[in-house]
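Why this split exists: single-chain examples teach little about how molecules sit against one another. For that reason, every record in the complexes split bundles all components of an assembly together and asks for one structure covering all of them. Below is a record exactly as it appears in the raw files.
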Amino acid sequence: MGPVLAGILQLLALMAALALAYVPLGTYMAKVYSSDQHWRVEKWIYKGIGADPDTEMRWPAYLRGLLAFSAVGVLFLYALQRLQGVLPGSLGFSSIDPDQAFNTAVSFVTNTNWQSYYGEQAMGHVVQTAGLAVQNFVSAAVGIAVAVALVRGFARSRTGELGNFWSDLVRGVVRILLPGAAVAAVVLVACGAIQNFSGIHEVGQFLGGPQQWNGGAVASQEAIKELGTNGGGYFNANSTHPFENPTPFTNLFEIFLLLVIPFSLTRTFGVMVGSVRQGYAILATMAGIWAGFVALMMWTEFAHHGPAFELANGALEGKETRFGVGASSIFAVSTTLTSTGAVDSFHSSYTGLGGGITMLGMMLGEIAPGGTGSGLYGMLIMAVIAVFIAGLMVGRTPEYLGKKIGTREIKFAACYILITPALVLIFTAFAMALPPPGNSMTNSGAHGFSEILYAYTSAANNNGSAFAGLNADTQWFNTTLGLAMVLGRFLPMVFVLALAGSLAEQKPIPATAGTLRTEKPLFTGLLVGAILIIAGLTYFPALALGPLAEGLAS
Amino acid sequence: MNNSVTNTARLLGAGLRALLVLTVVTGIIYPLVITGIAQGLFGNKANGSEIKADGKVVGSSLIGQSYNLPLKEGQETPAPDLKWFQGRPQNGLGTNSVNTQYSIILSGATNRSGDNKELIQWVNDAKAAVIKDNSTADYKVKASEVPADAVTSSGSGLDPDISPQYADIQVHRIAERNGLPVDQVQKLVDEHTEGRTLGFIGEPRVNVLELNVALKELVAKS
């Protein structure tokens, strides 16, 4: 069997596994967020928080809870890193500098997991497990909570109430992420991922002399890092490191983990709005774009254009032998089309066009299937835009799921889709125009520009992967990327929740013969078109300067 | 005004309590329980899959090593010890610069693009070296036979594996340097070649450390 066929078979196996999980997981998650029963452990947690989980919140209250929780999260994680030097269990690692601590705190709270530090030589046990890994859970749960609030906005009428933030947060962690991560962590250990607290210790080598290893709670962090679409590696090399991703099977399993919740949430959406077929239409959009991107990526990586790759007989620079080109391509597309940003191969050493595909994946807004929660709400915003465009074409007030898309709603949606591109392009322009940031590039020319464009695209879209040639541990990058992450995470959430509140207040309008059937393939096509056109119009000039220039030159 | 300050404080207090409770659950209980299960059920794997030769730990089957001669005076990079199977280039590995009380290996990739001058140079040099090192009196390596993994650095820099093709072209050299028959070394490589998982997952590969441990035993026996 050739590597191309093996790559395709891996893709098919992955699709089959995701399809098997779709109905049970999606339906289960709908039940989690609709049930009025509290588990006993959840009651203890609510008592600890001092919150009543049964109080319904309107959108401003929901948003305030979310922002307060996230603000505290940033401060706590910042303090933990600043105090690392005096905390026990830190392996003698020193405290993190203020700008890097800010960047990292923001990065993990916003579900980005951009890393300007080197995991194995900077973070001790306490910061990794009690700081970074905790945010892996809760930032993912926050994302799902916002998505569920938006779905309730569609499903509910004449109320304005969107649920209870604390209850959604706790249920997401306790009922979905924690059990899922625990099972996944044990599977990873069984395949060779490490899980110990041995710290830094010496191990013998074949030709004598010792090598130093960093032990830690790697598997437990790896599991939630993928399942919560976080992506922050325990080690600098992320999921290329054999202790994080030891075998070809764990590689495929990790891709499964990072896709399973975002895809299955479309089922949750379908169940909660009372029509699973609406969920299928959204799923088809996500899956179509994802599969198309994987196919493109495999094609360009197997073709390996570029002087160094042609000389080497393959694009294996930055890729691991055990995964090869096929599986690495699937991982690269999946991690950039979700908000994960974990890598099993280094994107900077992809072919020019391959690097462009990873960037374009993020530029679509990470909605195919996107991050845990953020993918679904991002895609629903695009659906609102698509419905609006269709409405303009026939001269009818657009409606989606029985709700009118009026001036207010479309303003919120428009603001949502403008924020991230504005952040990406403005920050990139400044970084290119000022001298110090330019000194951070490893490669020159078009690829150097791509390094910086990639960094801001990754930060503002809360992805976290990198064209890692960029030396991002400078005050400029720590600060501006930190700002891009905060604004790129929470401003869109404001508009999503405002939209949800506005939808929940409406009374439903009955479907008529003139209603656009949003569960039909026609709508899926329209939605794919809207997504590609909006991203294309926004980013084409920037992409032309970077990856396209590089890809066409070789 | 006062009211909103109190409200904000109350909200932040709730946020802090929520964070602390969830930190206990996901940041303390969860990793400790997983560690307990991992150590109880998969002790060797959870501790890094160490392998032993002659009763001594010689490394991890998951972490690639270098097989070099000791650094000679005036040399910047050590020369490979051609008695042993060689792994992939490791140009992306870094050295610890932050916490200098340790000498941990810093995993990582080169991050060079396909049109990067330095990468082109590295590939060129590596290819020439692979051809030169592996050609013996009666066996010449052709440029077209050198697989990509032999001349490129991996993502982690710690890739424990090479492709079977790269192992195969090293067979004649290994046989010559160790005074072994070629077919015996080839048999060793074949025995240590792992196919795709279930026939289609990942790529075929040879674990270099395990292969060298077996080679050492073979040399000792003959």
